[in-house]
Amino acid sequence: MPVQTDSPPLAALYAEVQQFYARHMHLLDAGAAEEWAETFTEDGVFAPPSAPEPIRGRANLTAGVRESAENLAAAGEVHRHLLSMVAVEPQADGSLRVRSYAQIIATPREGTPRLHLMCVCEDVLVRESGELRVRERRVTRDDRPDLRPGTA
Amino acid sequence: MPVQTDSPPLAALYAEVQQFYARHMHLLDAGAAEEWAETFTEDGVFAPPSAPEPIRGRANLTAGVRESAENLAAAGEVHRHLLSMVAVEPQADGSLRVRSYAQIIATPREGTPRLHLMCVCEDVLVRESGELRVRERRVTRDDRPDLRPGTA
Amino acid sequence: MPVQTDSPPLAALYAEVQQFYARHMHLLDAGAAEEWAETFTEDGVFAPPSAPEPIRGRANLTAGVRESAENLAAAGEVHRHLLSMVAVEPQADGSLRVRSYAQIIATPREGTPRLHLMCVCEDVLVRESGELRVRERRVTRDDRPDLRPGTA
């Protein structure tokens, strides 16, 4: 009987990570604050370079997106978050370290789209109840390479 | 005897969808009108926000790309269609609902490339003779969020 | 006993190619010249449209990236290479022909990111010691469609 190997484990993982990020960013850009926050762990941390402190926990993550969505609506702008060049590094503890590039595209109503920010995104993803979730995210802006998340 | 599961079905599907879109957009951007139209079903529908009515069927799809390609050649511009953040949702009937972001990049000869349009692309893909094809496509521009495809 | 097919070969290959490119571009954009050159074969060739001759071999590839990295550091700019719409065509000899779009994003310190160049990237990838490597790369700029790599 042939050995049953876990056939393409990278392929399965890679597709799952890409699908996860697609839904995750669709939620973010739609302003679906609570659903987006649920793609983090309960105590998930998001360290954007523009915040003085990392944002911790789903309630704060939800509040942050809700505020951003209101500001964008008031400004008449749509933002899109596009991740690319996604490198997935499985860790011994089962978590995934993922490094990617993030383009943030801003489009004003009746206006011209622009590349608003170019960033590097470093995530720790974990599996909970079968689903991938972000436990930790650190984002660095290319225009402010010296500005470390959480130290602004 | 071990159970033979369909090992990573999402992975297989996800890779196939990405490969499909890569070839599909390479054809479009090369102005290969007929070959591109063949990646739709015979009665495939493409509803861009800029058209007063959805474009129906391969003959019309071919004619549309041919006209666009001629206009771009006359203007000395190259357009590229880049899909990202691709979320694939298999449906009970075997079709796939796919939501993605589309950047359209325009580059004039000897000029500077620019992000021409930022869009959301919603496709229904089906399988015919083993190949994926677009049965339905609806595209929304971020600069005109209220403009529904086919209602312009 | 059921036949053991190579379950999703495209999926495995596709994920591996994407992961390869992600790491490859992270190395390039970090200015990790030697590590980047090691993702080419020993006699690998890179034909950018801006060079009068193709760059051949790891020593020259390393030198080229080192020089670029120094120039970028002096200019206070970060460059990112983003591949998308990746079409993988396995060849009879086991190599892979891969065609993709490349956005090169430039961000000055404290400045606004811009789409610096839009290119098409045509690679031949081969496997050495289990790892994918670039044996040949030809890049064409959309703003100079008539300029063939190596003929500038």
Notable characteristics:
homotrimer, 152 residues, alpha+beta, 6-stranded mixed sheet, disordered N terminus, NTF2-like_dom_sf (chains A, B, C), Nuclear transport factor 2 family protein (chains A, B, C)
Short overview:
The structure is a homotrimer. Chain A is α+β, with helices and mostly antiparallel strands and about 150 residues long.
Describe this protein's structure:
Chain A is of the alpha+beta class. Chain A has helices spanning 9-29, 33-37, 58-75, and strands spanning 40-47, 55-56, 77-90, 96-108, 114-128, 131-141. Chain A has a six-stranded mixed β-sheet with strand order 2-1-6-5-4-3, with helices on one face. In chain A, a hairpin with a 2-residue loop joins strand 5 (114-128) and strand 6. Chain A is globular. Chain A binds chain B through residues 1, 4, 7-8, 11-12, 14-16, 18-19, 21-23, 25-26, 78, 80-84, 105, 107-115, and chain B through 1-2, 7-8, 10-15, 84-88, 99-101, 103, 115-118, 142-145.
| Strand order, sheet with most strands of chain A | 2-1-6-5-4-3
Q: How many domains would you count in the coordinates of chain A?
A: 1
Percentage of residues in strands of chain A: 35-45%
What would CATH call the architecture of chain A?
Roll
CATH topology of chain A: Nuclear Transport Factor 2, Chain: A
- Most extensive chain contact? A-B, 32 and 27 residues
The level-1 CATH class of chain A: Alpha Beta
Q: Helix coverage percent of residues of chain A?
A: 25-40%
Low-confidence regions of chain A: 1-8
Instruction: Please write the string of helix (H) and strand (E) elements of chain A.
Output: HHEEHEEEE
The quaternary structure here is homotrimer
Could you give the count of β-strands of chain A? 6
- Structural class from helices and strands of chain A? alpha+beta
Shape of chain A: globular
Question: How large is the count of helical segments of chain A?
Answer: 3
